[in-house]
Amino acid sequence: MLQTAMNWLDERLDLTDIKAFVKEKGVPLHTQEVWYYLGGLTLFLFAVQIFTGILLLLYYRPSAAEAYESVQFIVTKVPFGWLIRNIHSWSANLLIAVAFAHFFSVFLLKSYRKPRELTWVSGMLLLFLMLGFGFSGYLLPWNELSFFATKVGTGIAGAVPVVGHFMLRLLRGGDDVTGATLSRFYGLHVAVLPAIATALVGLHLLFVQRQGMSVPMKIERRVNAGEPLREMPFFPNYILRDVLAWYVALALLAALALFYPWELGTKADPFAAVPPGIRPEWYFLAMFHTLKLLPSHIWIFEGERVGVIAFGLAAAFLVFVPFLDRKASRGERSPVFTIAAVAGLVYLVVFTIIGHVAK
Amino acid sequence: MAIVHKSPLATKPKAVDAEFDRRTFLDALLAVGFVSTAAAIAYPVAMYLVPPATGEPETASAVAAKAGELKPNSGKVFKFGNRPGIVVRTPDGELRAFSAVCTHLDCTVQFKSDTSQMWCACHNGTYDLGGNVVSGPPPRGLEPFKVNVRGEGSDAEIVVSRA
């Protein structure tokens, strides 16, 4: 039956080149191939987010008066609502964790080198978008924790020089975090970010398909010297392995959703005092803790402002890494960038742990 | 749909049993796995799509109006649980209450003082003061409620409850 459908389409659209592409697409086999799974895994979790996100939209209400109650309704009254919400929350966290792992593996393997600079840039932008998804989605249940975390988070945006106050008002929809902020974050979370992310994911995948998988430099040198490179057909062999990884992720998600339900907390009260121990989601902890450690003034500048500028510069550096690392593009070793990647990884891990433990 | 592809890892079977070889079996096993996964996802999603029953209100009674609000030959729509009700004072001064949900297509009926009838503006259904259909498309009369007056004078509360 599938064959009949394919023939029907083929007669009308001529799928010869697509079929040839699928048939010929191979995935290189070598000692570092395990990292190839991370991209597909991120894509899978992104699909889970879109799917569960659309389901949550059926019952969620984006207003300060009803948001909390509607989430409460979803997790207590709607059949399997608890499951959908827990999976959405857990998958969001796994997605960011896997995306970071994907990012560091690509960074350390220098897969961004010529000709894959644009794949890296689109991936970097996607990573920032995912953080934006996390930040905007966190507020939507309108509970105490998310309310104050959003105050702090948007307050950080306010520390950006020159345009800070404008950005803060733009994000909050006013001077304070109110129902107007919730409306904005909702629009951002369910319309603006998904539209941009979908386009970028499409572009990212297109680049990967056009260029094939990157091979680590060391192995590339051996292949250039005439050594044969083992390959596995993408369809169906490799895709089945990918599916296996997705199954593991799905099982993990189901287990987490069952045994560690995501708390809803208490409803946000703009006139209540900040609860002690307020901290953002784990993926913002390193940044949050760094800003906490900065003195109020560094030379003549405000400490927080210096921190925010530093983060901005670091983000810009990451986007432009392929263009800065000239050696890797020539196929030479570039230990400076390896050290930068390792230092970045160590910084993130250590500060996330300290931020988590710190009172 | 069988996935027909020779994996490089697969060893060539020596005696090919065309009816039922190892590959067919593994393909079938895989298909069962995929179908079970699809079912395990589809069931919760399908259940989730069906809105939960909110249930009828436990206390089926409500204060419809103050006695002084209703002059003879007038009516008032009020909130009865999560649906509308209508309380009417007949030209004779008698109080009656009904569900204000038109039995035709669930529009909300209103009192017309010129004809002393309850009228649904959606499709021109009319009901008499007993809630019975006079004309128009409604298939049944309006559900009648019980009316009690609590207190004295114009401040007395008109309490409506399920009959």
Can you summarize this structure?
Chain A is mostly helical.
Structure, explained:
The complex is a heterodimer of chains A (359) and B (163). Chain A has 359 residues and is mainly alpha-helical. Chain A has 15 helices and four strands. Chain A has helices spanning 2-13, 16-24, 36-57, 67-76, 81-109, 117-139, 144-157, 164-172, 179-211, 217-224, 234-259, 282-293, 303-324, 326-329, 335-357; strands at residues 26-28, 231-233, 297-298, 301-302. In chain A, helix 5 (81-109) packs across helix 11. Chain B has 163 residues and is of the alpha+beta class. Chain B has two domains: 1-52, no CATH class; 61-162, Rieske [2Fe-2S] iron-sulphur domain (Rieske Iron-sulfur Protein, 3-layer Sandwich), CATH 2.102.10. Chain B contains one helix and ten strands, in the order αββββββββββ. A six-stranded antiparallel beta sheet of chain B has the order 1-10-9-4-3-2, with no helix packed on it. In chain B, strands 5-6-7-8 form a four-stranded antiparallel beta sheet, with no helix packed on it. The chains are: A mainly alpha (359), B alpha+beta (163). The interface between A and B is medium-sized, with 19 and 16 residues.
Defining traits:
heterodimer; A: 359 residues; mainly alpha; Cytochrome Bc1 Complex, Chain C; two-stranded antiparallel ribbon; 15 helices; globular; B: 163 residues; alpha+beta; Rieske Iron-sulfur Protein; 2 domains; six-stranded antiparallel sheet; four-stranded antiparallel sheet; 10 strands; 31% strand
Walk me through the topology.
The complex is a heterodimer of chains A (359) and B (163).
Chain A: H1 2-13, H2 16-24, E1 26-28, H3 36-57, H4 67-76, H5 81-109, H6 117-139, H7 144-157, H8 164-172, H9 179-211, H10 217-224, E2 231-233, H11 234-259, H12 282-293, E3 297-298, E4 301-302, H13 303-324, H14 326-329, H15 335-357
Antiparallel strand pairs in A: 1-2, 3-4
Chain B: H1 22-49, E1 61-66, E2 74-80, E3 83-89, E4 95-99, E5 110-112, E6 117-120, E7 125-127, E8 133-135, E9 144-150, E10 157-162
Antiparallel strand pairs in B: 1-10, 2-3, 3-4, 4-9, 5-6, 6-7, 7-8, 9-10
